[in-house]
Predict the 3D structure of the following.
Amino acid sequence: MHELAVCRSMLSQVARIAARHRARAVTRISVRIGPLSGIEPDLLCQAFPFAAAGTVAEHAALVVDAQPVRVHCEACGHDAETGPRNLACPRCGERCTRLLSGDELLLAEVELLHQATDN
Ligand SMILES: [Zn+2]
């Protein structure tokens, strides 16, 4: 399962961040996923508890922020949102578009729980 491997590599990144900040636990992980990343957000959420078990992020909530596909048209200069199956310019129909977003798989935010102080 591809999503499990993705979760594991994401969690090793999260663990490094948590260690650097001396956090006790991770409470929330936000990721940005574009439809062209090849990652299915539902599958990623299903795989997450298995990958997170026994890690610092064991009780963290995974929040998926789905990104739109955006292209820049080289022919007419228009920037537009389009579908993952059709990357042609919605204004002029040209196919010479450049992808602006939609293929990302980014760790956007990690919320940490810090060591409680005694006073
Ligand atoms: Zn165009």
